[in-house]
Amino acid sequence: MFINTLAVTTRILKTAWKKYDGSTIIEEDQRGRHDNHKTILTDSMIQSVCDHVRAFTPVESHYTRKSSQKLYLPGELSIAKMHKLYLEWFDADKYTCKASKERQYRDIVNSNFNLGFHIPKKDQCDECHIFRQKKNATEQEKVAFEQHERNKKIARNMKSQDKKTAVESNGKVVTAVFDFQKVLSCPHGDINVFYYKRKLSCFNFTVFDMGKKKAVCYMWDETVAKRGANEVSSCLLNFIQAYVEEGVKEFRFWSDNCAGQNRNRIVYSLYVFAAKKFNVSITHRFLQKGHTQNEGDSVHSVIERTSQPKAIYTPDEWRLLARWAKNEGEPYSVRNVTNNDRIKRTYLK
């Protein structure tokens, strides 16, 4: 009855009775209470793991990392893969002890580094996520969220209408979305030595014509230019000029709300300059914050998916890969941006 009531085994009961000495005090459990514990993490082991992590070259993200102290490594890495690389990298002549278990390696990394892996940001709205986590939202919060949802639907409906207008205009109206792809690093590939090399950042600014379903990829590396408003304006000016020569009279652009790249006076000044020079109408609308998914994202997805099994050593190889990444239909138009034709703070070729 006692065993069934407590749902214990007879061994527990026998052990407790064996320790009973006639008083109500039971002998204290002595398991683990000794001084001859085996040291699992030695100083040499910790030093070897830390040196190995520092041997990796951090990558620059498409998103700002100025406010974060994290060490960002390539997204194709993981703790498990780093441990396999560590076992190959380990030098027995330099270190006396090795972290042979993945758990040891993981514990040392977590204790000594604020480590993160650069994985493309998910298209998840912060405002929507926060609101859904609230169990008892106030009326003011509910009203703000409903307005946020309405703005999202209005922006998407307007973009769909602009796309329809461009298709029916017979080449007189262009509706396009534009955005930067995540940073493309050189060298890139699933080769162990690449993870320890200094990375050269390459940029891809994509303008996608939704009416004709054509994409133009403006590509350059960090030795040529940055990825701010000046570069965006330069690429858009080149795009507008090319379409004006085909007889386009009106441009309708869509983008996200990034102030440093799209929503600023430099881009606005470019529109004023282009509208006056080419005698065209230019409209720029912005998608609702957190819901900036658009047709141009498919271009970036195709390029990244195509690059996964390949080794890429130079920026020229990124341009070739983007040019032939699309298997069906018209290939992407890739334009190599240089600093040889710098006119009024623009980078054109």
What does this structure look like?
- The chain has helices at residues 2-6, 10-19, 43-55, 79-89, 102-112, 126-133, 139-168, 229-244, 265-278, 297-307, 315-323; strands spanning 71-74, 115-118, 173-180, 184-186, 200-209, 214-221, 250-255, 281-286, 333-336, 341-342, 347-348.
- It is α/β, with parallel strands linked by helices and 349 residues long.
- Strands 3, 4, 5, 6, 7, 8 and 9 form a seven-stranded mixed sheet that branches. It has a two-stranded parallel ribbon with strand order 1-2. The chain has a two-stranded antiparallel ribbon with strand order 10-11.
- β7 (250-255), α9 (265-278) and β8 form a beta-alpha-beta unit.
- α3 packs across α5 (102-112) and α8 packs parallel to α9 (265-278).
- The longest helix is centred in the middle third of the chain and has 30 residues, at 139-168.
- 23% of the residues are buried.
CATH class of the largest domain: Alpha Beta
Tally the beta strands.
Answer: 11
Query: Which structural class fits the helix and strand makeup?
Result: alpha/beta
Which spans have pLDDT < 50 for at least 5 consecutive residues? 341-349
What can be said about this structure in brief?
The chain is of the alpha/beta class and about 350 residues long. It has 11 helices and 11 strands.
